[in-house]
Amino acid sequence: MMNSDDGELTPFAAPLPADASAYPKGHYDTLPAFALAEGEINKGYGELAALIQDKIPQGLRVLVIDGFPGVNWDGFLAGLQAELLHREIRAEFYHLAACLAYPTNREEVFQPFLGGKDRLFGKHWPFGPEIFFDPLLVEELRITASIRRSDKAGRITIFAGSGASLIELWDELWYIDLPKDVIQERFRKGRAGNIGYLADNFENFYKRCYFVEWPAFSRLKRAILPRIDLFIDGQDDDNPAWMTGAAFRAALEEIARSPFRVRPWFYPGPWGGQFMKGHMNLDQSKPNYAWSFEMIVPENGIVFESGGRFLECSFDFVMFAHNRSILGPRAAAQFIYEWPIRFDYLDTVDGGDLSVQVHPRPDYIKKEFGETYTQDECYYIVNAKPGARVYLGLKEHTDPGGLKKALLHSEATGEELDVEAWIHSEPAQPHDLFFIPNGTVHCSGRGNLVLEISATPYIFTMKIYDYLRRDLEGKLRPINIERGFANIRPERRGEWISRNLVARPRLIEETEESRLYELYNQPWTFYVVQRAEFATRHTLLTEGRGFAVNLVEGERVEVHSANGRVTSLAYLETMLIPAAAEAVTFVNRGSLPCRLVLVYVKPEAGLSVPVNDPND
Question: For domain 267-278+343-500, which architecture applies?
Answer without folding.
Answer: Sandwich (2.60)
